[in-house]
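Fill in residues.
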């Protein structure tokens, strides 16, 4: 790997964002091979990603903690989840923790870092703030892979994991939500979009373009040994899932919205494709998705209420009784101070009509 002289190299933090299973690990591995530093230790490789994830363990743990705090999932389909996660960008203790960690990495690991985690897109504002505090320039790489392939890959490798295993419909909705909001959050910043297929076909074109766009010394000064090492690392066989919409059971309306989103995002990867016209169309698609999701929530409201009641019913009888009768122990004068709308929501939460 080429040694990067710290004294002549400006600080850069390259953030690989967007949906998982889109070639993000391959991108990080290639940039790392060319000389960018991946903070250590990394998440261990496994059968789902045999060449490694390229994800710093500290970053994964930090993001997992933040997502738990704001009650957001890694692949959350709710448009409102962005607001909930975004509120943490202004939480000073979290800002300071990330700033201290990032400063240490830039000081000890080198002035050019690459950071990737599928949770990172939820906290782009937090990372931008930390990078600027460290006097580093943030830049963003968004990997693009057709949504049917992404969903098919997640179904193949993640469908059996844990109690929150999601189906094809939810994963498609989550892909739309993630990609539309990631694009909006990085708009106006130093960024690039790379098709996974292009990276596998001839990595030199997108990688050296990134080096030029982001002014990365490690990439621009890569030697023949570095290039050979990346050739050995990138394996076109890594694209093990090539699903199409015919392979998935997704409602036509959601499928069409996902396809329209992909068509517009794909334009961003073309030379000079990051245009106002594409931005406007993506904004319209984001509004369409938000409206569709609100409609689905309204239709499924009875299911939500039933699940909430079922959850209360599974509590031990004494606990259930305490939950339902707890308000009765509050003096009337204090209950009267609670706004009527809030009282109504509280009654609904505990299954009381009034």
């Amino acid at each position: 790997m080429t040694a990067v002289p710290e004294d002549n190299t400006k600080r850069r933090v390259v953030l690989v964002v967007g949906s998982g299973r889109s070639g993000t690990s391959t991108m990080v591995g290639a940039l790392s091979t060319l000389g960018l530093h991946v903070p250590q230790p990394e998440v261990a490789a496994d059968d789902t990603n045999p060449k490694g994830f390229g994800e710093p363990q500290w970053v994964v743990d930090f993001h997992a903690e933040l997502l738990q705090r704001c009650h957001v999932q890694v692949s959350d389909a709710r448009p409102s989840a962005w607001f909930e996660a975004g509120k943490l960008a202004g939480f000073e203790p979290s800002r300071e923790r990330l700033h201290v960690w990032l400063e240490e990495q830039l000081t000890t690991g080198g002035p050019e870092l690459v950071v990737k985690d599928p949770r990172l897109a939820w906290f782009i504002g937090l990372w931008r703030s930390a990078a600027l505090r460290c006097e580093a320039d943030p830049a963003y790489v968004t990997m693009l892979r057709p949504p049917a392939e992404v969903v098919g890959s997640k179904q193949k490798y993640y469908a059996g994991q844990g109690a929150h295993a999601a189906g094809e419909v939810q994963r498609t909705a989550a892909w739309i939500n993630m990609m539309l909001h990631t694009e909006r959050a990085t708009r106006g910043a130093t960024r690039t979009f790379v098709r996974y297929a292009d990276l596998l076909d001839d990595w030199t074109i997108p990688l050296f373009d990134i080096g030029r766009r982001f002014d990365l010394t490690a990439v621009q000064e890569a030697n023949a040994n570095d290039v050979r090492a990346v050739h050995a690392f990138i394996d076109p066989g890594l694209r093990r899932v090539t699903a199409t919409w015919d392979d998935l059971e997704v409602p036509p309306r959601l499928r069409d919205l996902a396809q329209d989103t992909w068509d517009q995002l794909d334009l961003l990867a073309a030379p000079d494709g990051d245009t106002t016209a594409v931005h406007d169309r993506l904004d319209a698609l984001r509004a369409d998705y938000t409206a569709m999701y609100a409609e689905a929530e309204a239709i499924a409201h009875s299911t939500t209420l039933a699940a909430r009641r079922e959850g209360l019913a599974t509590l031990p009888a004494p606990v259930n009784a305490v939950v339902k009768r707890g308000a009765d122990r509050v003096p009337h004068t204090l209950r009267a101070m609670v706004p009527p709308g809030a009282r109504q929501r509280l009654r609904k939460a505990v299954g009381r009509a009034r």
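The two ends are 69 Å apart (CA to CA).
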